[in-house]
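User: Can you help me understand a structure? I only have the sequence.
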Amino acid sequence: MRFEDSGLNPEIVTAISYMGFENATPIQEKAIPEILAGHDLIACAQTGTGKTAAFILPVMHKIMANPSKKLNTLVIVPVRELAIQIDQQIEAFSYGTGITSLAIFGGGKGLDWGQEKKALSQGVDIVIATPGKLISHMNMGYVDFSEMKHLIMDEADRMLDIGFHDDIMKIIKACPPKRQNLMFSATMPPKIRKFAKEILNNPKEITIAVSKPAAGVLQAAYLVYNNQKIKLIHDLIKGKEEYKSVIIFSSTKKDVSEITRFLRRERFKVEGISSNLDQTERNKVMSDFKNKKFQILVATDVISRGIDIKGLNLVINYNVPKDAEDYVHRIGRTARADSTGVAITLINEDDMYSFSKIEKLIEKEIIKLPPSPDLGKGPEWKLNKKGGGRKPFKGRKKNTRGTKKPYRKKR
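Assistant: Let's start by predicting it. Here is the structure, written out as tokens:
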């Protein structure tokens, strides 16, 4: 479908044509007509398929048809980086339309609070907010949802994973009962379907390429011990001039610091990003990385979803994601928009079980390689009879033989 045939306002079509977009992606082609028709919607599509435009463009069309001085649309997102990203996209899509938007998230300065208060009390067309910061404003009593027409939840699966269910329900109770609800998610586990039943009214459902990495991603894994990981990363990147942009994902802030320090000692241009940085510092790091001012970004999972970085060549998982769906989002940072990229995962003995679940989810066996000989021998890939790796230890097993005896510490 061409955007000019989608029924969208001609001014919106003109604005997105300046960005080089003429044809809708599959999720956009299916979602836009349903949203324009006023239906509630639950949509599932993997990262990088154009989900943001799928819900923002038709909502902008409806705002232009019925303008208001008060808040029209609320978009709830799990993390501040996604809020910023969506706000930036709205700014581009709305060029020349007069539509206004504001991202509201934690970690800002006092001046930000004043601007946010004004938008929530006096009106702005679209607010993109993280739940915690929005509730902080709601508790002050000045947030005006009286004319809100659209409630959008993006990355709904991630919001539930983080534990935002109760916060979201509190926000929803404050919204007008007569509204259009749109829920977008990269995965569709049972908890999302249950959540949708709590919120949506006879929704239309769209599913596009659930939990599958982009076809252009070359996936591989290395079987390594923890003390081999950093040196292996050095070997993978050294001399690879074609890798202009590299992201290394780690599960902990400590690892981010250690990896960043090591690569700096080896003369790589590298920066780390985690919750240790304030929002201004994080924004600068992300901006510099997008503008190719340094080669390697080492990050925690905070940026694994919703951030569009063009020209990303390599993604390295320093740790195997514990949730299989997160693997798709991490490696989804590369091979965007029909491009190609490389995704490499480092697997230690304890990560084999988690990685076997990833392979089951994506229905593909990933090639597993040993470290180079100079790093020493790595662990062997071991599968149990059920097809998984070694399950993580979860504590002392219960005594199930005969009468249960109390545990006594030996002296």
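Now, to help you interpret it: The radius of gyration is 23 Å. The chain has two domains: 3-208, 217-375. Let me know which part you'd like to focus on.
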